[in-house]
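Deliverable D4.2, example record:
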Amino acid sequence: MADKCDLCLLGLIILSSLLTGTSGVDDVFISSGENVRLPCNNALSDCKSTVWTYSNRVRPSAAVELITLGIKNKDTERHERLSLESDCSLNIKNVTEEDYGSYTCQQWIYVNGNHQKQDPDAHVFLHVLHVSVSPSSSSSSSSSSQTEISPGRSVTLSCQLYSDTGFSCDDRVRSEGYELLWVNQAGVDLKTDSRYQILSSSDQYHCFIITLTTTLLNEDNNREWRCRLTHRNQLKISVRYI
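Output generated by the structure prediction step:
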């Protein structure tokens, strides 16, 4: 009977998230490999009524319940990386590009033998900036990467903003003045340097993609390149690659 009640509660949570209003939307930008805190702006006095769900445009109909009434769901892939703060905000350790998407914080209270959802919901869109390299290497990581490749070889660095707001990038991001840039250690835009090929694009899942291609020189050993996300020419977040 308890299992059936839990299933009923899960169904009600997912259905209500589609039908009810929200308490506003927070946009959180983070680079992969870092830790992030997602605020819950509708929290009650404690977190025993808090439910956190997650979805993205890849699986829009498959909302995943991460936290149920203040308790972590052990069946989720990111279970070990999640924690709940005293203010019911959700912490995610070592963020990956697969963590991007829509997070919803809801409050459910027990009234007269039934769980009732308290409006409004609180939504957080998590945007993840990630850098990858081609040719790939097992030693490369996301936020501060190192890979051993030889001078004279061509290398391409791909910086991608994983973003899912329910709107197209043109409507939600580009119209608000967001831009991706490759810069050197001094912060100079590498589009001004003829040895680099810089290409920008977007697709259904990555919102922004900017690639840097160059032929490596001996003096590039330990050189640092940075991918920057700016908002109206102000730095929002940066990822470095060595």
